[in-house]
Amino acid sequence: MNVVFIGTPEFAVPSLRALVTPAHNIIAVITQPDRPKGRSKTPCPSPVKEAAIGIGLKIMQPANINDTASVEEIKRLSPDCIVVVAFGQFLSNVIIRLPRYQCINIHASLLPKFRGAAPINWAIIKGETVTGVTAMLMTAKMDAGDIISIKHTPISPEENAGELEKRLSIMGADLLVETLDGIEAGRVTYTKQEESEVSFAPKIKKEDGLISWPQETNIVHNSIRGMTPSPGAYTYYAKSASGEKKRLVIVKTQIHDTVKTKTPFTPGTIIETAPCGIHVATIDGSLCVTRLQLEGKREMDAQEYLCGHQITAQDMLTS
User: Fold this and answer.
1) Is the pTM of this model over 0.85?
2) Which residues contact 186 (CB under 8 A, 6 or more apart)?
3) Topology of 2-197 in CATH?
4) Exposed (0-12), middle (13-18) or buried (19+): which is 194, by Cβ within 10 Å?
5) Best exposed site among 49, 74, 117, 207 by fewest CB in 10 Å?
6) Which residues contact 280 (CB under 8 A, 6 or more apart)?
7) pLDDT tens digits for 25-60?
8) Cα–Cα nearest to 132, from 150, 157, 158
9) Strand 277-281 to strand 270-274: parallel, antiparallel, or no bridges (unpaired)?
10) Phi, psi (rounded to 5 degrees) for 219
């Protein structure tokens, strides 16, 4: 099967590598143009481009995949199938209808749940306990095509978005190979998505990471997990004496039993520091911060942080 592979981030790399077999002939890889990174703003290749270079594949990097030149080049390649894994641009109907087996997309959710750019983040933020990957036919409407196959996996209560993404990228690669083999053998079925069960997962913005402490403990915990490692969950630390505020990235938390007190704490109040970490009040108890990063400093465990920074009860973490 002659395949054009379209993808950009690290999530797509296992799928690309999985297709490097005698059964699949990758005739081209299409990925986003090199983007400026770091303080130097040096243009850097996408993870998919780096992998494709290492394998020795033909690479295309159109600013707009739907422009005339890109469409004509894909036509010239005459693919049997186009595979899309987290590309970052919408494909026109012209491209979708080009290959013999249409376009196949691997999406990191159990569709029709969490259509959109950030399904892994939102599944965790919303407290889902099970997620997975879906292989579907692409349509002009975002993530709305017929489902071909699905794989499920549980989400650990402590698992963050970065950790789950790594697992789902491997699952997605396995599902892709199974799906293409099934399509070529004529043994797949296509199931329409149930529109009444649709939910959306819009792109995560940096400001979405600001922690709101006046919520239930599990909601705050899930929000932090869903924002880690990117864009990062953050709060501001205010010393009760000086009022000075510093930005803190909260990397990891644990839920413990409700801290019982005679007078309820204001959410965001540091209740105590303990061997497990820093206890912070929520509306129904407390959350233990076990790993964090002060602005401009390296990430560290809470106990290591406490050795070098004075934190006392009644200090506040605020929005």
Assistant:
1) yes
2) none
3) Rossmann fold (3.40.50)
4) exposed
5) 207
6) 213, 268, 269, 270, 271, 286, 287, 288, 289, 317
7) 999 999 999 999 877 889 999 999 999 999 999 999
8) 150
9) antiparallel
10) -70, -45
